[in-house]
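idk why but the lab printer keeps eating my pages so im just putting this in chat instead. protein + iron/sulfur cluster:
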Amino acid sequence: MKRTIKYEADRVKGFGREVMSVPGCEELENCIQCGTCSGVCPLSIYMDHSPRQIMALTRSDFKNEVLTSHTIWLCASCYACSVECPREIRITDIMYELKQRAIHEGIYPRRFPIPVLAKEFSKMAHDLGRVTENFLVVKLFLKTNWMAAIGMWRLGLNLIRTGRFSLKRESIQRRGELAKMLESVENEKETA
Amino acid sequence: MKYAYFPGCSLKGMGRAYEESLLPVMKKLGVEFNELEDWNCCGATAYMAVDEVKACVLASRNLAIAERAGNKEMVAPCSACYLVLNKAKHYFNESPIMAGKVKRALKTADMEYSGDVDIRHPLDILTNDIGIDEIKKHVTHPLKGLKVATYYGCQIVRPYSTFDDQNNPQTMDRLIEALGAEVVHYPLKTKCCGGSLTGTLPEAGLRLCYILLNEAIKQGADVIATVCPLCQFNLDAYHDKIKAQWGPARIPVVYFSQLMGLAYGMSEKKVGLQRNIVKADLRPKAAAAA
Ligand code: SF4
Ligand code: SF4
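predcted complex ->
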């Protein structure tokens, strides 16, 4: 069981404000803690903090609890919560914002496959401009749990049998163009 | 009718049966889909989690290419692409800060996007631009007797419900009925399939798949019709694992466009049905009842 007592001293003051200043996350301010989001979330039973708790913890500056939580990575971006929230809080987008912060600060659970997938996916899209799913899956397993990959052999065979396995990696033609654009985003960040 | 066509990575990979069935069906209906030149990955949900600005730039490069070629509308059949492209467009039009960042990034490659190109879903085009009557007209092999659970999944109706209801979407239901099939009551039609969690955290992801499959069986469906390559993959590919953990829940899962192809007299091979892992023998069912 995780510690449930929260100490004032654990707060990282300003964290909530910072998140709520991001475009799309402003409405968090108005959360009434009704719990609708946790109720509709198909994954809340697997989460260490429910979506409602994440909203409360974020707003009250419990940065470490939030960023190390598995919840943000379990969010499958199904948008059920965002659509149902009576205060029109874009919960899914807040989850995205928190994921970005966790990656940026390097405090996500290391061998937990979900953030690793997000990173590897982005890397492939970044470098090649396209993603070839089976190559991505192989990389994911190598990085997290190669034993699990062995358990997947049947699925692999099924995909080959039905012609859904790609033998070559897809790529766009003007890779340089894309690289330039993404680089400029990076540069802008540094100067900001 | 002419649209720019953004296939996305999945329709060229694991979800190629979607493209294989959608393109001939559209052709039959006299609609032109022109594949976007040198399109790139939309970024999907994964890139959004790593870097939102870059994700928007990635998506916007596609919109810029579409705009440069003089397109007003672009069709994105994959639910994730549809959502991400729409989201980038929303951000672009609603947040001047984001728009500025995206514009400056595009400029480094002499590209421009003004926020104009509309992103459309095939279901939207089929039911609103083409119309159910026209769709019906081309049916030569009605799918009589086939019971279909229509599964929309999450990302085409949420959060931007541009063409259908968020909780009880109807476009695919009307489409499937126009093909002569019967649509069964399927209350989970917009529930989440688990997305990439089926691979990363199987006990959570696959449980959602099991529930979706089992509900369809309990409602008497012969087949589940989907609109998304990830939904199709999740519901089709993991039956061994699902069975081992919760018991059998075997039911074929196909793209709505494959059902359209069959109703238009195309062969199973032509619409890519041989790519299903759970074999879908749909014709005999339809024929036996006829
Ligand atoms: S549904 Fe909205 S208002 Fe209710 S707890 Fe969740 S975020 Fe807060
Ligand atoms: S978007 Fe994420 S948090 Fe919201 S209901 Fe879906 S999985 Fe749960």
